């Protein structure tokens, strides 16, 4: 099997591989630029950044790559609109958005000449996104890491979404190698989004302790937890998660006022920042369902090479 070509608006990457934009500084300029240089679409996770930080990340990525650079911005973030407008001012190539649904973003994208891609988990929402002007949709199943919009498998929702829209459909959730990519292409995907695999790249800037948790993960370590965002999240079992499960987690002493709606049970930004910086027992280590299948830290260029070879080996 050969990798197909995908077109998102006027963007045509060499490979139909999008790096998931992981929030709170997991997906930053060095990773996004490396993916873009390898022929995919590199994505900066904007949620958790202030506008000026995002502006500098985009500029840094541009300095390191002439490839396609996008941003991922959660609708649930209170500064959602400001971050989107900042990215558009910086002439970002493409905007991805999930964790809720914005109708306004499509108008903003049209005004700036920037394609908008909606992250969806049902055929109904995919059709609504297409109607409002989405250039493509990411079909994200329950196998994905981080905040989840469904408990349904990607293999179940992908064909449903494929039938409802004519725009490109990008499969996301649990894809960690070329064999997974090939499986999604056979189910009707035009491309794939991969996040967990790129955490275990040399260019991902998370702490070594974070990467070590990924490398040591067993399938039974991957569980669902409740997030203050109001959605379940997929993460690795650790001391912080155990406290969440038994109800002993202390409520936050301060509020960053970062979400439109928050349960206040714990600070999601603190939890994600702690894990990213290496305090993994004091934070959430988000990951995809198949993290245990990834056992090497490789340069992004090598990850792409292996994916292409694995896809080519499938009939």
TrEMBL record:
It holds the Pfam family NMO. SUPFAM superfamilies: Inosine monophosphate dehydrogenase (IMPDH) (SSF51412). The keyword ATP-binding does not apply. Keywords: Dioxygenase, Flavoprotein, FMN, Oxidoreductase. It comes from the Bacteria. One of its GO terms (molecular function) is dioxygenase activity. PANTHER family: 2-NITROPROPANE DIOXYGENASE. Nitronate monooxygenase that uses molecular oxygen to catalyze the oxidative denitrification of alkyl nitronates. Acts on propionate 3-nitronate (P3N), the presumed physiological substrate. Probably functions in the detoxification of P3N, a metabolic poison produced by plants and fungi as a defense mechanism. This is Probable nitronate monooxygenase. It comes from Desulfallas thermosapovorans DSM 6562. The lineage of its organism: Bacteria, Bacillati, Bacillota, Clostridia, Eubacteriales.
